[in-house]
């Protein structure tokens, strides 16, 4: 044994001690309704692009900042390509944005409960999190979020895990009165009827983040993006670094945006039908799911954790939360084809006590 192997490994800087490694692998389950991905599968043109991919070209680096993908995303969202930043999932864009605008040791204000990665991404970038309860009507509390005087305000709309949307007037009101960066996480934008995108044209401090992981059915490829003023995009790209969207993922993402919009729209439409059908079935069973604008519903349930474990044994995975602020224990269920919702209902009825 060498001397160095007996020495203790170095300790990471403060902030990291409050973070644990993400426990995302649910384990194998026949029906997985736990992660809000598109349960109708992969869009057909993206799949063909993957099958035709020239693996011999993988010797080369991909485009540094995904110029061609930016062009497609710009056309899809209706902004100029200079207002688009891509990333290895939108987590990567969020991470880079928090690093760039968190001003080293700054703070980020968000609502609680919200996307579970936000406190993690903040802390690993040395940024503290201040969380505020939602208003009684389920919308974001504008004055409370502003009064925290943070460097960044994060709004998730529709919000994961509640499914509630923020009114665009409230987001605009925050942006108008705030000097720092407003991040609006629209991972579920395709499912929601109100588009937030026009905000980035009028508010130079808003960064919208979106993803190919949810409605576009490409979570395994890790492609996300942000929309904002070109100067925000530039700072986020500096912070993100080059080559974050790999060649394989880039080709499939472009094919999906160029050719698979009808597929995306068809699966969104079917999801909407199945979501209201599932909500009414659950209400008939005496349950009270929260009104959702996403491809998932949140169901407050006193023994949510136990129920999810029993459901897992019967082959259906859902996401359980032990104690959400203002809500308590709850199950989050991804909406998919009706056969899966039927299997969910059977497993749920068997598992509730
Ligand atoms: C799923 C999700 C994301 C991110 O996903 P990526 O796969 O990293 O693009 C971001 N925000 C919210 C609210 C999500 O639910």
Highlighted features:
353 residues, alpha/beta, 3-stranded antiparallel sheet, 37% helix, 17% strand, binds pyridoxal-5'-phosphate
Radius of gyration, in Å, reads 21 Å
Whole-number mean pLDDT: 95
Distance between the termini: 56 Å
Structural class: alpha/beta
Strand order of the largest sheet: 2-8-7-6-5-3-4
Largest β sheet strand count, sense and barrel closure: 7 strands, mixed
Helical coverage, percent range: 25-40%
**Pattern of helices and strands:** EHHEHEHEHEHEHEEHHHEHEEEH
How many H/I helices?
A: 12
Q: Name the ligand types.
A: pyridoxal-5'-phosphate
Spans of at least 5 consecutive residues whose pLDDT stays below 50 are none
Describe this structure in words.
This protein is an alpha/beta fold and 353 residues long. It is built from twelve helices and twelve strands. The strands form three sheets. The protein has a seven-stranded mixed sheet, with helices on both faces. Strand 6 (181-185), helix 7 and strand 7 (206-211) form a beta-alpha-beta unit. The longest helix has 24 residues, at 261-284. It is globular. The model has no long low-confidence stretch (mean pLDDT 95). Pyridoxal-5'-phosphate binds at residues 36, 89-91, 115, 156, 160, 185, 187, 211, 213-214, 219, 224.
């Amino acid at each position: 044994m060498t001397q160095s192997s007996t020495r203790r490994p170095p300790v990471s800087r403060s902030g990291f001690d409050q973070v644990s490694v993400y426990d995302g692998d649910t384990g194998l389950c026949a029906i997985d309704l736990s992660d809000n991905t598109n349960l109708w599968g992969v869009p057909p043109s993206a799949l063909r692009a993957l099958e035709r991919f020239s693996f011999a070209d993988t010797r080369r680096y991909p485009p540094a900042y995904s110029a061609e993908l930016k062009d497609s995303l710009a056309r899809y969202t209706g902004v100029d390509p200079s207002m688009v930043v891509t990333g290895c999932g939108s987590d990567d864009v969020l991470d880079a944005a928090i690093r760039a605008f968190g001003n080293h040791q700054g703070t980020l204000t968000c609502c609680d409960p919200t996307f579970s990665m936000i406190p993690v991404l903040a802390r690993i970038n040395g940024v503290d999190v201040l969380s505020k309860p939602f208003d009684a009507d389920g919308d974001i509390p504008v004055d409370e979020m502003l009064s925290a005087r943070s460097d960044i305000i994060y709004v998730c709309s529709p919000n994961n895990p509640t499914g509630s949307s923020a009114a665009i007037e409230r987001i605009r009101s925050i942006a108008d009165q705030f000097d720092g960066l407003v991040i609006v996480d629209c991972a579920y934008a395709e499912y929601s009827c109100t588009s937030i995108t026009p905000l980035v044209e009028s508010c130079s401090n808003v960064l919208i983040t979106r993803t190919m992981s949810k409605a576009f059915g490409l979570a395994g490829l890790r492609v996300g993006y942000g929309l904002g003023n070109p100067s925000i995009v530039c700072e986020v790209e500096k912070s993100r670094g080059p080559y974050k969207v790999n060649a394989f993922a880039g080709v499939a993402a472009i094919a999906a945006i160029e050719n698979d919009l009808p597929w995306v729209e068809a699966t969104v439409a079917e999801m909407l039908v199945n979501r209201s059908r599932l909500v009414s079935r659950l209400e008939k069973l005496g349950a009270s799911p929260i009104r959702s604008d996403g491809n998932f519903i949140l169901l407050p349930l006193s023994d949510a954790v136990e129920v999810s474990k029993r459901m897992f044994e019967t082959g259906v995975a859902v996401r359980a939360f032990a104690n959400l602020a203002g809500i308590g224990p709850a199950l989050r269920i991804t909406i998919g084809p009706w056969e899966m919702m039927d299997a969910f209902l059977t497993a749920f009825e068997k598992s509730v006590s």
